[in-house]
Amino acid sequence: MGKTDTLNHFALHAGWSGHLPIIFSLEMSRKSMIDRLIAATGGYSRLRMRNPYLYFTDTQNEQWTEAMMKLDESSIHIDDRSALKVSQIKETARKIIKENPGRHPVIFIDYLQIIRPDGNPGNQTQMIGQISADLKNMAKEFNCPVVVLSQLSRAVEQRQDKRPLMSDLRDSGNIEQDADVVAFLYREDYYKAKAVPTNELEIVIAKKRNGPTGRVKISYFKESGTLSEIE
Fold first, then answer.
1. Is the pTM of this model over 0.85?
2. Closest by alpha carbon to 110, among 134, 136, 78, 87?
3. For residue 79, is pLDDT > 90?
4. Residue 11 contacts by C-beta under 8 Å, 6 or more apart in sequence?
5. Could you tell me which residue, 210 or 192, shows the higher pLDDT?
6. What confidence category does residue 60 fall into, taking pLDDT thresholds of 50, 70 and 90?
7. Angle at 167 between CA 165 and CA 170, to 5 degrees
8. Residue 116 region, left (φ>0) first, then alpha (ψ -120 to 50), else beta?
9. Is residue 27 annotated as part of the catalytic site, yes or no?
10. pLDDT for 154 beyond 60
11. Average pLDDT value for residue range 108-112
């Protein structure tokens, strides 16, 4: 649907705006994340990037160094260790923050359901509830946004309107209660094959503690993982 590409878009722009993006990629390797970030920064096709010597145009080759320099300016930190606990995420984030004084952190986690719980919380719903509460406390302690990706249940597949609802959050636990903002992604192209794809991604703001909810439409180019605004 484009969750990781959306996360990368936010991380890049946070970095270019002078913040300190810290990504905890529990599912994807650091190399894969960097490849995606390069593609999004330079607007490169990820398929062509598998063999740039063969598939890149002269212009793309010339722009490679510029894209790498621009990515470097984002100062993104990536931790790709799997099965981390919130306490380990907090420890690593604290270290990175101390090493970068004067830059306000933004923490990104991909994704919620594979974070390991501290202790033995019982069933899955209790476990997700504990992790959600711990992440909320971490956001308060560091006084920074914590952006966490989440899987959805399969219930959305059974409905005629495939736009996700709050009840679709998988093992939701306290997610609805703890989150200041809940945003869902919806692509009609994902469900309806079209001769000419619309490249339209809808961000559904289902909850916003201090503001309005609603839908925002942007352009999403899956080949490069690039997001851009629609006028």
1. yes
2. 78
3. yes
4. 21, 23, 37, 74, 76, 106, 108
5. 210
6. confident
7. 105
8. beta
9. yes
10. yes
11. 92
**Range in 44-48, 196-200, 218-222 with the lowest mean pLDDT:** 196-200
HEC string of the chain equals: CCHHHHHHHHHHHHHHCCCEEEEEECCCCHHHHHHHHHHHHHCCCCCHHHCHHHHCCHHHHHHHHHHHHHHHHCCCEEECCCCCEHHHHHHHHHHHHHHCCCCCEEEEEECHHHCECCCCCCCHHHHHHHHHHHHHHHHHHHCCCEEECCCECHHHHHCCCCCCCHHHECCCCCHHHHCCEEEEEECHHHHCCCCCCCCEEEEEEEEECCCCCEEEEEEEECCCCEEEECC
CB 108: neighbour CB atoms within 10 A? 22
For residue 80, the model assigns a pLDDT of: 94
Question: Of the listed 27, 188, 200, 202, which one is catalytic?
Answer: 27
Size of the chain in residues: 231
Q: Is residue 195's pLDDT more than 70?
A: no
Residue with tokens 């306000």: 104
CA distances from 166 to 7, 94, 114, 158, 199 (A): 20, 31, 20, 15, 25
